[in-house]
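[SOLVED] Need 3D model of a two-part complex

Original post:
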Amino acid sequence: MRVLFPFFTVIVLVLLAFAGVKMANLHFLFGVIIPYAAITVFIAGFIYRVVGWGRSPVPFRIPTTCGQMESFPWIKQNKLENPSTTLGVIGRMLLEVLFFRSLFRNIKTEFREGPKFSYGSDKWLWMAGLAFHWSFLIILIRHLRFFFLKVPYLIHVTESLDSFLQIGAPLFYITDALILGAVTFLVLRRFLIPQVKYISLAADYFPLFLILTIAATGVLMRYFSKVHIVGVKELAMGLVSFSPAVPEGIGVLFYIHLFLVCVLFAYFPFSKLMHMGGVFLSPTRNLANNNRAVRHINPWNYPVHVHTYEEYEDDFREKMKKAGLPVEKE
Amino acid sequence: MAKGPNKEELSKLDYTLPSTEWMDTPVEFKPGTFCWGAKGKNLQTVEFPNARDWTPVEDDWKLPQEWEGTVLEAMADRLSKYRSFKLFMDICVRCGACADKCHFYIGSGDPKNMPVLRAELMRSVYRKYFTTPGKILGRLAGARELNVDVLKEWWYYFFQCTECRRCSVFCPYGIDQAEITMMGREFLNLLGLNTDWISGPVANCYMKGNHLGLEPHAIMNSIEGMIDDIETITGIRINPSFNRKGAEILFVTPSGDLFADPGTFTAMGYMMLFHELGLDYTWSTYASEGGNFGFFTSNEMAKRLNAKIYAEAKRLGVKYIIGGECGHMWRVLTQYMDTWNGPADFLEVPVSPITGTRFENSKSIKMIHVAEFTADLIKHGKLKLDPSRNDNLKLTYHDSCNVARGMGMMEEPRYIIKNVCNNFYEMPEDTIREKTFCCGSGTGLNASENMELRMRGGLPRANAVKYVHEKHGVNMLANICAIDRATLKASMEYWVPQVSVTGLHELVANALIMTGEKERETNLRGEPLPGKEGN
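Solution:
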């Protein structure tokens, strides 16, 4: 169920787009209305979620310190793993967001008879994660060319870097292979590693299947089953200039691709994919470890009932006097 | 440990998963893996709800009416109060990087001890009542209803997490299981579901000032005994003061240091060092606990216990506070105390009276760690040390979880060790510093009825000790945590009996050449010093 449901959901989505465009001729629905709706849901939903998190305060400054703290001048602080300044925090967050620093630390615990444990470096998840996320970003940047009349320089540079191998026509993009490979790896590990399989939910398989299908349809369109690319650009320009028009004869594969992308965007804010926004807000990473030097304020800090010294002395006065301890009240 | 868990059985680890999905696998209360339930009288002392005696293995937990509502209301409240909690409920992608990082999972093979799954125990309920997909899709969205079985599962597994934060080091989003465990325990405490081993010390600490329930004269007696021992060993009679107004420094350490060895040797170490320096300090019998079992209960209880430290510092009129060797104590002091009970504007920025070093990194909380204090002394050459007195030791050092991951004090203790001991060997790098393994018995799990759990949880640490024991002949495990001193002792006796356990300042005091001391024949344990074995 946890695998099959998301799997068939993606198939149904593909069929839906196919039937809608090919049989019911709902080009305007799939080409204009759904994309507008999806992007609206994405933006509004994303903001809603981030604001929702932001509304809960951070009562305590709780960084997970992963290196030497700020100490004496003669002890070297690890300014990135245990930052005490905003600059250090920015550095730590950049490493985390751009290079998945914490995942890079990953080690594999191995058990042998004895009992004996050994710990080995295990960078596969880190590599696949990095390959997947960076490929996704670069592909997204490449796709922006559809939304500009004159394609900006930055996109040209991205494209030429991505295709520097200079293989085939149209030129082969490295990120196309990377994303397919990385997502396949991420799916396979959920199937093959028993522990990961055990913890996986439908919500873990669905985005993987969805993204895999999006990437696959994209690759199909570019290299194998060409669609009317000028029409796609026209459609995109119409969308971005708020004067949508649906050109004839783009090809159904494109609509399937577009529909799945829309589903991904609309699904995004309601899913674990929000880790994209959440990673920036994580209090164990985005705070400086300067608690002892700078007081952190908890907005809901409230007075509590304590057992005062006076009450304590009342309980033990005679014993204290007998032991020679000074007392406040004789 | 004749009656302890079967070592052979514990050495056979099986990571095979149950054939049923985790939601369909009922929790099984295995003897030796959980603590007794809290006693009514101890809950009453701190005005906690549903105070009554109860037993975890009995079917009826004597829960209050409408308990589900109580939990869900509290959950809504904490979600609105803690960004960490809300975020950590939402953003986990179940990548599994945390799974084999937990000492309880490594040592037990129970999949619900994978941090990700332990968190899902809570998330599944969160989804059901607080997210739209969970409300609509139910189990398909990983959601489930809160019922008695779920509650019992929470209790079992949230008291199988020591909030050591090792998982959060490896999580790509910094998700910290400790935050989730803390919430879980907070909810459980609303229903009177603490453990006896935690609620007893909490009640003690609240009324008597320390976890052990030592009354003022008992504290003094305990210290008197140590002073006698120090005199026997060094020929010097030291004279510490208690509850003394006008002292420059208030000294607070975990009460475990006053109670049993090897903690008592550490306490002797502090006193010998302070005496040699002529430090103007006082103990307090009211704030006689550095640790905080309230922290393993609820945020509010932790604050209530912690309040005594600043209150006593203010009453006595000291300038600043020095804290002893303890793990969770230092996470509480570093990340919580000032926020709860500060600002400590009646104190001054700590300045070492011996070296003049101003502790700028503590200018707000006005409390410094005794290891920083000592490291600074050694750096300035203020101590006469003879490390050869520790030559019988081959030492390794265990980073306490909280000091490593909730503070980041890693070099100071090592600097001290290298100056007071000639033979020091590090354990493998994946088991020390920020990747250090828990002793297996933190967060109030150091009871005796759950010995199997403790030995399982302590296995990864013990295994790394065993490695350096076999490779370098290490025979002593140093640490800066009172719970470690008690629990690693048990875990070493069980897994690596050739290795003993020591606090840092025991080593310092052994090496410390005190003014006017007689020629020392023995170390603080009464064992002959190296070279004096024949005497």
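Edit: Chain B has two domains: 7-30+49-193, 202-511.
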